[in-house]
Prior knowledge:
mainly alpha
Amino acid sequence: xxxxxxxxxxxxxxxxxxxxxxxxxxxxxxxxxxxxxxxxxxxxxxxxxxxxxxxxxxxxxxxxxxxxxxxxxxxxxxxxxxxxxxxxxxxxxxxxxxxxxxxxxxx
Length: 107
């Protein structure tokens, strides 16, 4: 049984512009989540990571929570501060992008 929200979400994903906005936002949030998880695994707080990356704590916080328009060199600095490397990949969409959203509930 689907909820009203799930039906609403599925209807919104029919709109190509809305789908593009959602996909962009999800990809952006994934970067911030990866940074936060790795930072926590390394047992660092945001202030410690900021010091290692020679950045401000608010900047680290912004990147983790809403990483919009983050420059690659900034991500590289954060990765190095975490003892990691940055990988950037271009991955082709599968033929049926709609099925991915409907099946996963937009992950």
